[in-house]
Amino acid sequence: MAKKFDWKRYELWIAVFVLFFCELFFFRNVLSHNALISDTGDGKLTNLLTEHWFRALCGKEGFSELSMFYPAKDVLGYTDLFLLFAPIYCIFRALGLNLFLAYKYTLMLVHAFGTASMYMLCRRTLRLHPMWALFSTFAFSFSSSFARNLVHTQLLAISFLPLLLILFICFFRTFEDHKKRDLYAILAIAWFAGITYTSWYVAYFTGLFVLTMLGMYWLCLLLWRKPFLKLLWEKLRFLSWHPVVYIAWLVLLYLPFLRIYLPVLRSASGYSIGDVWVYQPTVKDLINVSSENLLQGPLVERLGLEEKALTPELAEGFSVFYLIFWVLAAVCFFLRFAKRKDDKREPERGYDEVLLVALIPTVLCSLVLVMRFDVTNFHLWRIAYRIVPFATSVRAIARYWLWLSFPMAVSVAKYADALWKPTESKKSFAWALVAVILIFVANIEKEGVCSEWKLDEECEALEGISEAPAGMTCFYITDPVHVWEDNQNADIVYNQLFAYALATCYDLKTINGYSGQEPVGWHGIENVFLDAYEGAVFDWFLDHELTGVYAYSMKDNRWMPAADRYEGVLDEVFCPANDDFSVNSGLLEYEPAECVWCSQETEITIQNDEVAKKGLTIDLSTHLKDFKKQLPEVEPKLEIYVNDTYVSDFPMIDGQTQVTIPVKEAEEGIYRVRLSCNTYFNPKETGVNLDPRDLCLQLFYIGD
């Protein structure tokens, strides 16, 4: 008689085969040698930042240095550090892969690690049925928003979350064994620190969710009359002095983090609430998975979600099927828990189930926390922005929904496993199989993961660079090229990152750069297409007393001493009409017809020895109603800075206003006037009076 096939014996191999196939399908559009993940913006930047660690290990760069923004200090703290990517990346580089391929395969391997650890979390640690373990893994690792948001490759750090939860659970399960417990505690703290050193957003959202979870857990214990404080006190007494070691270990690991980021925090006050507002999803965005989603794309287009500003940042939603299934499982689990009587024989089990119940309001509150309501423009994040530590460092708050795909996937699988056991009948197994297939299909992106740049194009751009001149200390780019004629902002980023890549590949230093933060005094250098660009560059190297500066022409592949260009550019830019004065239009590159969100700052540079004697007169026309319409909860405020020193507020009215402000005498008679607003405006130059002390601008809101 033939033996019955033992599914349990081959379960792990089946899961490995299924997940390996899903990984290939997820990355199907970048499996070719030429396709790279992400784009020439964030993708290229994060690639070069990860390359920094390999260069540092090879002794080509200091651990706290970068090749861009030369000679600014503390540049490493301007963005994420990508530390956990570095070991894998450095191995690939040591094996001879170029920096672009090494980064691509690093990302794929990190994602595969997250997939495997997610399955092991659900199957081995939480002991769920294989079907629900697969469901949870599909909902997390292969979600539509994950594929879409790989344009920001730093967000791939969410693949490190399953291992963090495994270590956390093992800490409590081995609580009585102090050696194992301490080991898991040390590993969990170290792993969380590693996530922080890799992606600040992922680490911050982890802490935010844990704090919310603790509050909800405590409230649920109060409702079900569980002696929470008594249990907590008993646990702490059992731990004795060990928490002191945990805290000391945490502090030790974060000392370098503080050393890297504190100087940046001192010089940058964070993002304003106006910055955050445009990155907040609305209720409809719960199902915004972009029009590229196979099943839900037409619905997203019909609701007009793609027409909103910054849509790629707001495509953080979930499939309709998944949302319905999560709500159904959560409600059924809650009802079953409410009817169940306490098990006096296993009191700890009651605490575990209350924790699962507390997950429901925690997830719901977390979803609503960052949501902006269309009708009233009300959002809870306005409160959190003021009271939660480091909240001002988070701009793209919609990414919290992507992070929430992890606890949602874990909780829905746990609820489903407790409610509908696939082992109970063939019918239950069939329904679970249908759910697994549906969640996979519902998350399919038509084109696969984000891939908007090519290996051959990047290599071609960096090959054949003429030999750098001897004695060159640093360079800046000139004669920038247009790559996307319809997107000047993308062109600006492309050219800045070309300079950074050129400096990285040829062991050079560049004044150019691109990052989440900018050095003090770097204004005017960010837009390489403006006439005032080279003038701002010359100001930079004069302020920093740089010598040996060269210009690199992107069109001609030619190096030129900056000193040879200095006089000609001064004649052309600074003195067009007379010897005293000119106006450079700083960041005034936006046309009023464009429906884009602009920066809140603009800068004008004037040169006149009489300014300090007579004062500076600024003539502006503002539209207060439009500012109010844009952000009703924010009182519009326009501040004036001269040479990075605050001098005055500007009255915001409907109409034209003139203000004269006293100005201290500046070296060489050059005055940089910066207008900084706490909401969004679009600056447009409306004319320059012959009087060098009159600057005429119109500031107006252009809508979303």
Question: How would you describe the overall organization of this protein?
Answer:
The chain is an alpha+beta fold and 704 residues long. It contains 25 helices and 14 strands. It has helices spanning 11-26, 42-57, 86-94, 99-125, 130-141, 144-148, 161-173, 178-196, 200-223, 228-239, 242-267, 273-277, 297-302, 311-314, 320-339, 347-369, 381-387, 399-419, 426-442, 455-462, 488-505, 533-543, 562-574, 611-614, 624-630, and strands spanning 35-36, 453-454, 474-478, 549-553, 558-561, 583-584, 601-607, 616-622, 638-642, 645-650, 655-661, 670-677, 682-687, 694-700. The strands form four sheets. It has a five-stranded antiparallel sheet with strand order 6-7-12-9-10, with no helix packed on it. Strands 11-8-14-13 form a four-stranded mixed sheet. A hairpin with a 2-residue loop joins β9 (638-642) and β10.
Give a quick precis of the structure.
The chain has helices at residues 11-26, 42-57, 86-94, 99-125, 130-141, 144-148, 161-173, 178-196, 200-223, 228-239, 242-267, 273-277, 297-302, 311-314, 320-339, 347-369, 381-387, 399-419, 426-442, 455-462, 488-505, 533-543, 562-574, 611-614, 624-630; strands spanning 35-36, 453-454, 474-478, 549-553, 558-561, 583-584, 601-607, 616-622, 638-642, 645-650, 655-661, 670-677, 682-687, 694-700. The protein is of the alpha+beta class and 704 residues long.
What secondary-structure arrangement, pairings included, does this model have?
Blueprint: H1 11-26, E1 35-36, H2 42-57, H3 86-94, H4 99-125, H5 130-141, H6 144-148, H7 161-173, H8 178-196, H9 200-223, H10 228-239, H11 242-267, H12 273-277, H13 297-302, H14 311-314, H15 320-339, H16 347-369, H17 381-387, H18 399-419, H19 426-442, E2 453-454, H20 455-462, E3 474-478, H21 488-505, H22 533-543, E4 549-553, E5 558-561, H23 562-574, E6 583-584, E7 601-607, H24 611-614, E8 616-622, H25 624-630, E9 638-642, E10 645-650, E11 655-661, E12 670-677, E13 682-687, E14 694-700
Parallel strand pairs: 3-4, 8-14
Antiparallel strand pairs: 1-2, 4-5, 6-7, 7-12, 8-11, 9-10, 9-12, 13-14
Helix pairs in contact: 1-4, 2-3, 2-21, 3-4, 4-5, 4-7, 5-18, 5-19, 7-8, 8-9, 8-11, 9-16, 15-16, 15-18, 16-18
